[in-house]
Amino acid sequence: MVGPSIHELHFDGAPDVGSVPGPKTTRLLQKQREIDSAAVSYPENIPIAFEEAKGATIRDVDGNTYLDFFAGIGVLNVGHANPYVMEAMHKQADKLVHTVDFPTEARLDLIEKLDAIAPGNLAGNSKVVFGGPTGSDAIEASIKLAKYNTEGNGLVAFRNAYHGATSGAMSLTANKKFKAPYTPLLPDVVHAPYPYPFQQAKDPEEAVEDALAEVRATVLDPYGGLANPAGIFVEPIQGEGGIVVPPQGFLSGLRDIADEAKIPLVVDEIQAGLGRTGEWWGSDHFNVTPDVITTAKALGGIGLPLSATIYHEDLDTWGSGDHAGTYRGHVPAMEAGLRSIEYIESHDLLAYARDLGEYIRSRLREVGADNSFLADVRGRGLFIGAEFVDEDGDVRNAGDFVAGIQQRCYENGVLVWKAGQYGNVLRLLPPLVLTDAQAEVGMDIIVDAIEAESSDRAAGA
Predict the structure, then answer these.
(1) pTM for the full model?
(2) Helix axes 331-346, 105-117, angle to 10 degrees
């Protein structure tokens, strides 16, 4: 077994918080408001200033210690400052950091490892192109790859999707408010419905049939409107959209449509991938082999910026320099990424994430059985969403309810996040190294927060 046990990674005694935010945090938040960009958003939801972190625990500048149930939005799958990963990263950083795309042992080892764990028949038959530091860069590369190979320009994406903030990635993203100030974006992008049985009030089979019918018509119908399709872009489980797990049959149906149309199926694994769902990739849960997958977030091991596009070798038709980027040779991040995969393998964290995720979902379902505000619990592994509604069963007015839960959790030492088009989904993304004991303590606090917020709302507070 490589590296320490998951039980050795954390600060002792978490959570341990006083009155928050403390004075040092308040001072730093005020300074940030004065000199940082107006685009800063995360501290508006959780007013905290970090100082250090270990495993699934974070300490702020005032000495308050929290349990981390969002892991940098799915970045820190093997925890903060994992010693096995940090050791390799520091060793590499002392020797060589930036290499563009010249070969290094770390680069080639990571490529081989990604090929070995690639989903389905992509394993053993893939190529990897590293991009810039963000998931958006990987999406941009996948768009270029699809267009280059098909000579088409039409892209199919899905409602409720999030793929990034650069121009092409934003074109695939569904959020109109997010995109509106920056239009026009890419032309010929069609957003089909994503099967979301809870909000669509449909049974799973009907939701899948309706979604696939729209995609099939768009791509294959001679009057479907998309003249030159180049690819289908989909999240295996929607992340920002609310941890929406599609029913079985959806991804396999997209696979069939893509094959018939002779266009690539691109699966965005940026948030769902690298063990988050209890499998290496979200698509593994559906026994579907994509032509292309995008990855970032957890790829850099312990938060180092790195993205990659993994695709079938038959699509490797680019000539030299046809896709480029200065920051595609971040060697410490590649070393850290390799080490994080090794740590997950050695500690059997895929199976552990599946079991721990089921425990967390079961705790939430127990609350939901007697709580009219908690309407749906879903997810895979440690990719978990709990959707809330208001007193009338409406999802559109429950965002402040989840914000209240988030605030109560913060005040009691657990950091959680939100998702969903209305901010009405409690999103839990703890590191895969969260211990059973930490999960129990954290869920006690989360459950208490849900019940307290529910009681206040029911009383009209």
Answers:
(1) 0.97
(2) 40
